[in-house]
Amino acid sequence: MGMAMAQRLRPLTPELSPRHRFGFELRRIRLAQGLSLAGLGGKINYSGDLLGRVEKAERRPSAHLAEALDRALGADGELIQRWQAVGAEAEEGAALVCSGCQRATS
Predict the structure, then answer these.
(1) Residue-wise pLDDT tens digits, 5-46
(2) What's the CATH code of the domain at 32?
(3) I need a labelling partner for 49 at 20 to 30 A (CA). Which of 6, 11, 16, 39 fits?
(4) How many CA atoms lie within 13 A of 89 on its CB side?
(5) pTM, whole model, 2 decimals?
(6) Which helix (H) or strand (E) is 75 found in, with range?
(7) How far is it, in rounded angstroms, from Cα 102 to Cα 37?
(8) In this structure, is residue 49 part of a structural domain?
(9) How many CA atoms lie within 13 A of 91 on its CB side?
(10) DSSP assignment of 25-54
(11) How many folded domains does the chain comprise?
(12) What is the structure's pLDDT at 68?
């Protein structure tokens, strides 16, 4: 059971964005430790489905999730650093969306 019956992993594309890189690194570290998504999720009280969506860059990880993953996987801050890049990307995207917004001046 466990990893032997796991679905075939979809190839990831870490070069697309910081969010994709986060998912790629999460999967790399998780698999190196022989953990399934469900097994890792059980350690940190998140569903394996959610973690799979984060790995595939379908969901943006929260700061809390990134910290919990980093701790549970003993990643020495690597996932937190990757999450910071994801946050910077999100802020940059929000700035682009609002580039046409008028700002009040004092």
Answers:
(1) 456 888 999 999 999 999 999 999 999 999 999 999 999 999
(2) 1.10.260.40
(3) 16
(4) 15
(5) 0.79
(6) none
(7) 44
(8) yes
(9) 6
(10) HHHHHHHHTT--HHHHHHHHT--HHHHHHH
(11) 1
(12) 98
**Are the beta carbons of 90 and 59 closer than 8 angstroms?**
no
Cβ 83 vs Cβ 73: under 8 Å? no
In terms of Cβ atoms closer than 10 Å to its own Cβ (0-12, 13-18, 19+), residue 27 is buried
Tell me if 1 is assigned to some domain.
Answer: no
Which amino acid belongs to residue 4? A
Domain extent at residue 48: 14-91
How far is the CA of 9 from the CAs of 6, 63, 77, in angstroms?
8, 25, 25
Q: Is 106 within a domain?
A: no
Helix (H) or strand (E) holding 11: none
Spatial CA neighbour of 52 closest among 37, 35, 66: 37
Q: Is residue 97 included in any domain, yes or no?
A: no
**What phi and psi, each to the nearest 5 degrees, are found at residue 7?**
-65, 160
- Dist. CA 13–CA 11, nearest whole Å: 7
